[in-house]
Amino acid sequence: MNKLPSKPWQIILATLIVLIVGSVGFAVGYWVRDHQTFSVNASNYPIYEQAYRLLLTHGFYPLPEQNKIEYGMIRGLLQAYNDPYTSFVEPPQHELKTQQLQGKFGGIGARIQRDEQNQYRLYPFPDSPAKRTGVLDGDILLQIDEVQITLQTPHDDVLALLRGEKGTSVTIIIYREDDQKEYTFQITREEISLPSVTWNKLLENELVGYIQVNLMSATTADEVKNAVADLISQGVQSIILDLRNNSGGLVDSGVKIAGLFLPADSPILRQQYRDKPPELIKTNEDGVFRDIPMVVFINNGTASAAEITAGALKANQRATIVGVPSFGKYTIQLVFDLSDGSSLHVTAAEWEIPGLQPPVRDHGVIPDIWIEGENTENIDNRFVTAALEALNLMPQP
């Protein structure tokens, strides 16, 4: 058993030793914490560690915040990785992109627009939480919860602050020019849809339906299905599927949309992940619209999952493709959420359309009918004219 000091001088000396050891341990702990906070295993990255310490010691300007340093390091890593589709997305942009691909979000139901003075103005949707609470068209947004909204606040940050889980509340302060007063509204968020599909009958020919798809989200295939069914109920006998400037989205959505128009056992996609055998994806059953005559519009802005839809329909000789070659993006990205709400989008696979020549990776999807000069004034008329001519040559149901 250890004996406790009994004399006063022994007690004082022991106390001093404890204090000194404790102080040294405390200081070392803080040094280690600071050292580890700003380094990424110095033994593996000595040049980074050296550069950081030089900036810290000699730099005239203060170092950025911790997250800015980390974000910069990640972007440097991806630049060295040298894949254009592997990317890092900061929290506000990641949240908005996720909501866009889900096809819905929790929000107040208002459009946000900057005016000539760069102020954010609100324009509530009909029967939206914002409208019912009292927000009027043109109200100037001053504050969201505790965050002041300034001319420098990024648009994505404003959207992210207004959105949140359905059923949660957000407090906004607005300025109303009509009476020159500020108003505070507490608004309960509701589920707001983000439609990716619009449709109508063509004015030039009411037997032809026009469907525009601007994104491949989780709800897009069902939206397309509803659009075609609605047009058929209005007497439409053939359709135009417009995929121009559709940059893609979810691969599964592109596959499902193609499947709506293909017979059973039609090949749609062959995908290859690292260290795995190629996987061939086919339709399991006849598509509900497998017989309706159709034309697909594409351009250089048609990419990724939208190219899967267009390419599969072309390879299976199911639709006439009109436009110019598509973008040619033949890779699949997996999205990994990071701890602070940011995300890393990693290229994890490549895909091809069975039977499509040339392959998408070489030239994009090649149209059957070329429409040059996409920025010309009458471009839509030229696309529609080409589509109607192609549909006239097809057997009608």
Describe the structure in your own words.
- With 397 residues, the protein is of the alpha+beta class.
- The chain is built from 11 helices and 19 strands.
- The strands form 4 sheets. Strands 3, 4, 5, 6, 7 and 8 form a 6-stranded antiparallel β-sheet that branches.
- The N terminus is likely disordered.
Main traits of this protein?
single chain; disordered N terminus; 6-stranded antiparallel beta sheet; 11 helices; 397 residues; alpha+beta; 6-stranded mixed beta sheet
**What overall geometry do the principal axes of the alpha carbons give?**
globular
Secondary-structure element pattern, one letter each: HHHEHEEEHEEHEEEEEHEHEEEHEEEHEH
Q: Spans with pLDDT under 50 lasting ≥5 residues?
A: 1-39
Share of helical residues? 25-40%
Number of helices: 11
The portion of residues forming beta strands comes to 25-35%
Q: What's the story with the biggest beta sheet?
A: 6 strands, antiparallel
End-to-end Cα distance, whole Å, is 99 Å
C-alpha Rg (nearest Å): 29 Å
Give a short overview.
The chain is α+β, with helices and mostly antiparallel strands and 397 residues long. It has eleven helices and 19 strands.
Helices and strands in order:
Blueprint: H1 8-37, H2 46-58, H3 66-81, E1 87-89, H4 91-102, E2 104-107, E3 110-114, E4 120-124, H5 129-133, E5 139-144, E6 147-148, H6 155-162, E7 169-176, E8 181-188, E9 190-193, E10 197-201, E11 208-213, H7 220-233, E12 238-242, H8 251-259, E13 267-273, E14 279-282, E15 294-298, H9 305-315, E16 320-323, E17 331-337, E18 343-352, H10 360-363, E19 369-370, H11 379-392
Parallel strand pairs: 11-12, 12-15, 15-16, 16-19
Antiparallel strand pairs: 1-18, 2-9, 3-4, 4-5, 5-6, 5-7, 7-8, 10-11, 13-14, 13-18, 17-18
Helix pairs in contact: 4-6, 7-8, 8-9
